Structure formats: C-alpha cells, structure tokens
Amino acid sequence: MFSPLAILSSSQCSSLFKVLPFHPRTPLYDHAVATFDGFVYAIAGSVEGKASLLLQDKVQCYNPHLNHWDFVGAMQEARAKAAATEHEGLLYVSGNL
Asked: What's the pTM value of the predicted model, to 2 decimals?
C-alpha cells in the first residue's frame, strides 16, 4: 500500500493500470466516462462539426473481454462536458454544456 501523495515511477504505474484501446464507434470529445460491472461507458460528448460542436446523446459500452465497443442507449438530452459515476448499481451523469 502506498500514500496517495507518493510519487510513482513509470514502472510502478504500468503495473497499476491497463491501457485500453479507445476506438468507440463514434469518435467523441468532452464525453463522460465511467466503469460499471467490468465494462467502460463513454457517455454523450460532442463530435466536431465544421461550424460548431455537435452534442451527442449516445451511450457506448466497451467490453474488455471481447475488445469491442457497442451502442447501448441514449441520454434523454444531448450533452458534453458532464461527469459520470456508478453508485449502487446505477450510472449517474451530471452537468452538461
């Protein structure tokens, strides 16, 4: 166990984290990310358009066992720059642009 204020070397960090490929079905900017039940969720965000940012409502899920992204639903409202977390079996998203 180490202190959260301890400085870690790159070799220590590589043993703590696994780098996942991030290639969702729709490229996103300013999206929320949360983990739940062993899956990674990329939630809402924006897609760069020529004149402006296009807000998204899509929810994408990464299955690390299959190394695959898939659409799993949509938010009630398109949003970007939100935060997401899991609590007691539910995903919560708050804030938006």
From this structure: 0.73
